[in-house]
Amino acid sequence: MLEVTGLKKTFTSGIISRTVTRAVDDVSFFIEKGETLGLVGQSGCGKSTLGQCVLRLIEPTAGKIVFNGTDITALDNRALNSIRPSMQMIFQNPDSSLDPKMTIGQSIAEPLKLKGNNREKTESKVVELIKQVGLNPEHIHRFPHQLSGGQNQRAVIARVLALEPIFIVADEPTASLDISVQAQILNLLKDLKEEYNLTMLFISHDLELMKHMCDRVAVMYRGKIVETGKIEDIFQHPLHPYTKLLLTGDSDLEISTVDYKGTKNQGTKNPVCSYYFECPLRSKACLTETPELKKASSNQLVACHQILKNVSGNTIRMENK
Amino acid sequence: MNFLTISNLYVNFPTEDGLVKAVNGVDLSIAESEIVGLIGESGSGKSVLGLSIMRLLQDDVIFKGDILYRGKNLYSIEKEDMRKLRGKEIGMILQNPGSSLNPVLTVGFQIAEPLMLHKHVKGSLAIEMAKELLGRVKIKEPSKRVKEYPHQYSGGMKERAIIAMGIASEPRFIIADEPTKGLDVTVKRNIVKLLKEISDKKTMLIITHDLGVAEELCDRIAVMYAGELVEIAPVTSIFESQLHPYTQGFFNSLPARGLKPVKGNSPSLIDLPDGCRFHPRCTHCTDRCRKEHPSMVEKNSRLVRCFLYA
User: Fold this and answer.
1) Which residues from chain B sit within 8 angstroms of residue A212, using beta carbons?
2) pTM of the full predicted structure?
């Protein structure tokens, strides 16, 4: 369904002393049809940028994104517009994703009108969608400020569904919601995903949520994917030290002096493995070679020299026996 | 004598749309060196309860009830005396570190300020103490950081600075309002660890909707719904079993507990339902719940506001 290879996004700032922030740094992954991939990481690790790059809401600096057989990085705007309806995004903050001057009904009707539906059909479809996301028809004529955050997020989901997408990027859809409302929205997303056989990229910093929502997870750290695998495998045997930290809080990470705004380009002074400063397993090898995402077990990929060394050591030993 | 006793507290805000009944008859007492967690959804009135202990509500609120702090009624003492109590005896750790710090003052000065005011420490010495406090809340290079402004701090560091401010003049009682809101998982864990360290021998009221934080830090949990407390229980027993249907729903909406939330939305505080406040969302609702308002009953040395146990 979606295949991303070597995706990069850099932001340059400063006129005299130019600093390059590599928000997304050479990321490759794939999502199969009907699958939910979770993208987890700390704030500022580049997960939202990645989510938006995948839909080309932000132009990626380099890399290739193949969606449903078409390379969307090569498309011009017109061609992109024709493919956009099938790939949609749900943003973090529902209150700012809805037009405050439009009623909920108008917001949901907008994409339907653009698709060329007539008025009658639009109206009946709006009612259908409203019901589907668990709102009442009376909400159609309300404005976003008259509804709660959870209700607004439902409206956003209805608007996204209006376009009948096959792929959705959900960027922390419940970050601004209370836990009981969060649970309601997540259940709704899960049901809709089943019903429409949606493929999803689910972005969150909460691994616990991932367990409920996703089939596979990719753990992101400072612009790079450091580990990916089936959800059960990641939870049962996390390999990368950062994943372990996220899951258990074992390693004693105090606020580091390195800021989290991506890898700053500082030439050779910068360690090659981005996790170097916080890593309990670091060694000299981590400073000379960038770890690549490699197979560590049958369905788990990890980018860490130390772990990979151990894994390959084990397999060699087993072969010798 | 209890350390803090809140009895029959009502806080209402007059607005254009009507009276917002934020706190409706709350009774809660906290013993010396006990840590109580106040949990509930946003809009349940928990922050207002925290602010009313500090007497930080605006003047036009309709207020009823008593708050006794070590035998002293906080609402019958002079404003000036309350100001002296605030920060010195009762410290507050506010939510939203981004907007609780003054952007045009250095962090060091803001931590030093309560020391200068309450402990009458001279300026340079106060800054020196602020440095020490920053070290205590585990901010690296405190001598450099003390001169910096809030925008140079990350979210987690700002929260640490706020905590440093809250504990600067060694208060006996600390109110922490959502100390981990908006922080990353790993940062959150560190803040919880830090709060645990400073909570030693202190009395605290921790307001949060994060059950993980509450479990980690508190001795006793009070659950708030629509402006009233619906359940009060020791932390170990409430995490084993929840009595009130709302508490059950609240706990079950955690991803780790199966993501089974309570249906519907919390009621508007302007137009509260009759009878039990929770009855429109409750699966055990009876006729009595619709008409009568339940009072707190004791059940296995826990308190619960539900007819199921009456």
Assistant:
1) 255, 259
2) 0.80
